Amino acid sequence: MSTKYIFITGGVVSSLGKGITSASLGRLLVERGLKVTILKFDPYINVDPGTMSPFQHGEVYVTDDGAETDLDLGHYERFIDRSLSQMNNVTTGRIYQSVITKERRGEYLGSTVQVIPHITDEIKAAIKRLAPDHDVVITEVGGTVGDIESLPFLEAIRQFRQEVGRDHTLFIHVTLVPYVAASGETKTKPTQHSVRELMEIGIQPDLLVCRSEHELSEPIKRKIALFCNVDFGCVIENRDVPTIYQVPLLLHEQGLDRQVCAKLELDVKEPDLRPWAAMVQRILEPGQRVHIAIVGKYTDLTDSYTSIREALVHGGIANDAGVDLTWVPSDELTDQRAAGRLLAGYDGLLVPGGFGIRGVEGMVEAIQWARENRLPFFGICLGMQTAIIEFGRNVCQLPETNSSEFAAECENPVISLMNSQRDVENLGGTMRLGAYPCRLRPASRVAQIYGTDQVSERHRHRYEVNNSYRDLLAEYGLRCTGLSPDGSLVEMVELPEHPWFIGCQFHPELRSRPTRPHPLFASFIKASLEHQRAARHAAALADTHA
Questions:
Q1: CA distance 456 to 196
Q2: 453 contacts 442 by C-beta, under 8 angstroms
Q3: 3-state class of 113 per DSSP?
Q4: Total-model pTM
């Protein structure tokens, strides 16, 4: 079967959920037995988002091959349950970098290098590279129709249809149908204008996915179909739902995957969505609830921690528990009194990754409180490093304990720059990135959680545990229970005497799926539930004796 290509664009406003729509359609097609991959075009000039602030871009999602990519790739992987790669995220910067490199090599000798055809040809080549071994390539074009930055991508996909044929391509436009509360009306005009602008570029959408707060009536759908030149059955409603994992079910009810298969002439089986629906039901109606505090640097924009948020939801699925998250800015924890005031009443503490000194001391205060009060603690990347700083200061009693990232001349740098990073000059794409193996100590808690002594996890860091302090940390009770295969890098630490105190240098959230929760997150939520039950039991005993 020839590869089919689906292009998803967005209009009216940004943040409409093109990524969730792409991922959901991908899931529906996977359930129909197709081999699916998803490509994200980002119109910014950065080569990748690796050097961008989380407050501007949100999370940087790292793939197995070490690509720093858009957070939408995380949604793609979680929904279609496939590992993606560098080829699945292409930016304007990467396209221009490739074209300019070719021009310098002399590949365009005699030609004036222009947006058309050279830039658009490079964009089309990026789409075609994903065709081998896949039945369907879904491409999400970032940005909003009308933006200057995305015009070359839109022109490229217009040309692409002309080259591969209408039977092999499909255009889906995600748009907004707002509800005006003052008049009590649903307005279709923004959608009409967005489609008209797309048509001016030369692209006629085959299907419309209409984002809305409320259900769209049949007259509204017919009006949209009439003015946007699509069939009535190709106007798909995508209203707000409690969980993103409900979206594939909603789109299937609306007939999105049926329309896609019909238009692309895909003769495939009907999807069996019962396991997925059962998973969604566990999210919507859990048997219990657990409360987790996340103390981090970028809590004002929770998209900075998208994969952690979703991995905690997955951990809840594994334990039939709803997970309630509270985002606590780390710079609010100024001392132990503030830590106790902000963390008391929670069932678990998670400290995620980050870069730079701001807020680190607050993380240290939070971890000390969790350690001393036996609150389940999960430290990821910087979270593990700050746990080691806290342990060095307050348990080992080392003076001036810190990371050389934050205090280059400190007396006891328990965290230091990796040897491989000492001569690095460029910041983009030069960290320890991608999947690396980790050897677990037999019979350790982490080995019991994983059920194996060898794992592979994704990394994104420059600093690592200083090996000079490993023996001292172990002497005081902090075990290094996960190491690189050659034993040179500390990957995981744990406190065996604590109910649940684990830190990891890697990012396990990037490997978690709603259908396959990551074992560390499942175990963390389980421990948090046990802490909750113990706290309630203690409170009940106290009331009895009062």
A1: 48
A2: yes
A3: coil
A4: 0.94
